[in-house]
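Key idea: predict the complex, not the pieces.
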Amino acid sequence: MSNHQNVPKATLQRYPVYLKALRKLQHLGISRIMSRELSEFVDVEPTTIRRDFSFLGSLGKQGYGYDVGSLIEIFDAHLGGSFQEKLIIVGAGNLGRALMNYNRWNHVVGEIACAFDVSADKVGNAYEIPVYPMSQLKEKLPEGCRIAILSISSNVQETVDLLVEVGIKGIVDFTHEHIQVPKGVTVKAVDVVSMIQELVFETNAMK
Amino acid sequence: MSNHQNVPKATLQRYPVYLKALRKLQHLGISRIMSRELSEFVDVEPTTIRRDFSFLGSLGKQGYGYDVGSLIEIFDAHLGGSFQEKLIIVGAGNLGRALMNYNRWNHVVGEIACAFDVSADKVGNAYEIPVYPMSQLKEKLPEGCRIAILSISSNVQETVDLLVEVGIKGIVDFTHEHIQVPKGVTVKAVDVVSMIQELVFETNAMK
DNA sequence: AATCGTTTGTGAATATGTTATCATTATGTC
DNA sequence: GACATAATGATAACATATTCACAAACGATT
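Result:
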């Protein structure tokens, strides 16, 4: 149990999907579920679901299924619901502010501690989150902060290097550019354009 | 060439990454590249790159490498750069408006034709893009529109069903909820929280 | 024009990820 | 309390994806 090292990438990508689906089920008043039922819900084969779950321990009971509540707790624990991550937003433009306004963060995956921006007129407070000038990154970076959300549109690589320098280990990348990081730092690109490109390709294939 | 049907999923997910990297290279004035060089740039093995490329034809020259400009053209063509996709945004709240303000759309992957929202006060124009009431979805949907960007926060599944009904084939999903679609419709979830959850999991594994 | 060095593109080998099968073990019933 | 039922979890078969290894092809050089 909890040897995260060897959880397949593909499995890892499904964990948040399971968690969301389980939340929906709980909301619907369902407290017990079998892999076969869950399968139709998330469109993943029952066997795959069971294998995915098994990496985190023996979560189910034979002849019974899984307890929705327990599953949510376990996934929450592993995916950061319980340990309060301190997140920072880098770039307080349109998108950055939209993200700050998402008041869904607390108790889901941590909280946005503060934001940074180069232009002086963005500095101050936005949606109750302090916005500091980029130059104060080192001083204002919250203790133990590992994850940054990147919502800038210029000087991208430069800023990334800066973030790496102060110890950021994971970047959620909203820029449209290609960025490079050293080993040990993970980038998750959130690019609408890329998503649409994939959709276009697939949709064409079907036609 | 161009039998999209059998391009592996994993490969497809890398295409937008290559395209972005190639654009960066072109910007840096590099007009010729070898798979080995590109490899360090995108952190994908040279052989994998060559195989990925080969699905689209024989794009390179032995003993020489690839021409950056030609590659960009080819990827553009396959990923929707040339055929003008008509996109719609469903939900004109904070996030929807941030997306509309991204004036990067034109000639990258198509254009945002219009947006829809349930609340009357959002209807009108935002950043030069018309916003129609949700009730007029059927009438105002652009001819041939296949892809919708979903940036709503309530009545999610209901809205998805509606979109499927009018013929949408691909959804870029910004909601935090779990949604279900029939076969033939593809959903790409863009969920910051999920991304962070994956990062937390991986970052913990490394520690 | 022939040779050399280099890099692509692909068939074969390996590794990774998914699905089928089944023994095991729990629940619920008589 | 023993038995039938049913769903998990693990092992084995399969499928997909990555990497190796090398022949074919191009540019550069003599």
